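If you are new to this repository, start here. Below is one unmodified record pulled from the training split, so you can see the exact layout before writing a loader.
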Amino acid sequence: MATNGRSGQRIEPSFGGDEDDDDDFRVEASDRVTSSRKAPRGKSSGSSKKSNGKKKAAGKRGSARRSSGGGFIGLVRTLFYWCIVLGIWGAMGVGGLVLYYGARMPSADSWSIPERPPNVKILAVNGDVIANRGTTGGEALSLENMSPYIPQAVIAIEDRRFYSHFGIDPLGLARAMLTNLTTGRMVQGGSTLTQQLAKNLFLSPERTLERKVQEVLLAFWLEQKYSKDQILAMYLNRVFFGSNAYGVEAASRRYFNKSARDVNLGEAALLAGLLKAPSRLSPARDPQAAEERAQVVLRAMREEGYVTDSEIKTAMSQTPTKAKSYWSGAEHYVADMVMDQLPGMIGEIKEDLVIDTTIDLDLEKKAEEVIGATLDADGKKLDASQAALVSIDGTGAIRALVGGKDYAESQFDRASRAKRQPGSAFKPFVYAAAMEIGRTPMSIRNDGPVRIGNWTPENYDQKYRGEVTIADALANSLNTIAAQLVMEVGPQNVVKFAHRLGIDSEMQANASIALGTSEVSLVELTSAYAPFMNGGFKATPHVIRRISKADGTVLYENTYDNPPRVLDPAIVSEMNQMMVRVLTKGTGKKAQLKGWEAAGKTGTTQSFRDALFVGYTSNLTTGVWFGNDDGKSMKKVTGGGLPAKAWHDFMMAAHEGLSPSPLFGTTGVQPVFDEGAGAPAGDLLSGDPEAFPQAPVGVDGAVAVGQRPVDQGGEWGGQNADEGNGGLVPPADVGQTTGATRRTTLFDILTGG
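And here is the target side for that same chain:
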């Protein structure tokens, strides 16, 4: 094509011949690219003039051809040319960046998948999962073991070409770039699941060019080293799903209270939808947003052919998930207790562990329901905002524990970590210590005004009953009698006795300990009652039975199957007889169990700040506490009120379907007076020796109360009656007696000593 006299202008090639003949490809002389030069020598100017007309005609035809399409084609070709040029330079630039940032990374030979943070799987006594603890909050599952809807949902919404790309998805990246350019903001991401895994495993979350290049290189490496299924499983077991849940197992238990093995279609869609914005879309924070996003995932699954319209319709008809702001369920109090104890048993947790506990999940659920129902029904009107329950068996194994009304609202465990005054629920230790120095259930004491130093204890109803048996005094929770007995035994000996039975907290050895003024936890108080249930053996409270590695290697196993004896069977028999009367005739009537023999003791602290009931059958010992975290007074809530009612409801549910059995040492036993002291004055002075006959041997080979020695010392830790005798003091004015006192004189008899 001619230059039209303009030197250096690029002439686009033209294709001559029949336009329909694609095979006839010829370049005419006029279509060649020429430079501006003079005509060859030897040619006359006339000759040039002769051809001038032909050139003008050809110029007109070329001009017409350019105007009809040559300009557009030229533009396209120019753009194509420069795209190629820029693409080459761009590739060189990208290659340079890859080489530069790749050189800054460690050698690929040293790359390896970081170990997943150790998980602690906590199991109930039947093998069901109570909770998972650790950084991830859930165990790792293979694709075969999780619901098939989960990987389908994630692939459909996050990376549809996951099984066909090579670590990065050029089509997906181009689509994301185009969408973001047209909208003017970040709407879509172009990262594949492999890239996301690479970022989560190896890189920081900062958005820099270097991190993006390294992410791509790591994605290539992952695709070369692992299968697609392995990559997807690693991703699903480590990705963040919001609300402190990492991995599908943790998220499933967090939001649905079930394993990822059992997740349905709608729940899988919700989990997959969280990946876009885990914290913002969490159903614990915004259930509506989570549900709307789940419906987007369902539509994507339908487009990919994973589900049908009918399946989507069923999924959308299900009730939207409403998750609490934190892990919910009383079993998480147990999980926290386990995690607190683990370091002391095995040291630092460096690998996955399986913890077998003593918890019965059925009892745990019943306990939680009872505590919640009781507070919902009466808590507000009686100003009681919190409660706790712990139930143990005769070995000290904790079968149920509820640390508060709602774990999601408060994770503080009021059963094991809170220390409160037990009030009169401490009195059984005072009475049992008195039994060890020769007192019996029928010993007589005078219920009247008592002064001990500057302390003058009063009964709850501010009334006095005169001469009463010790059994009646315990049943009616008379403070004056408990104060007298603690001074007869000696406060320091009462403290030793309580420690022997299982209370670990430090207690003050003063007279007021008779009324439970030293603070203890509900767990240790309840476990200290268990020797009355099991015939006199220590019941060390424990929740961990066994600690194992994931491969089954046992690291720890408890040794509480051979407990020491801490009480004489005769003392146990006497105490059981007395504490049965607390439920049948005393302050704990609301705790009576139909068809079951039960015993226990109520407890109420000053100004109604705390109310407790601790009781037992032949199967379980259970303690219940009601109160407020700030120590605020309740509206006259006593141990015989809400705690006794909740105890009754739980124990009835716990014993449903079981055959009733009597308490240790209560069958066929009749109470007697201690020898030569404590009988009603009229009977003793009349000289009637048959007034209170000896009792026969009790059940289970227990020694009947009338057949044991008057003083119990030595093996059981009791103190000799004459040791530390501070002088004879009338019961109505005890004074600061520090030692245990054994009174057998006529004065003792006449004064009820």
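Two things worth knowing about this chain: The first helix runs from residue 45 to 103. Residues 136-316 form a domain with the Penicillin binding protein transpeptidase fold fold (CATH 1.10.3810.10).
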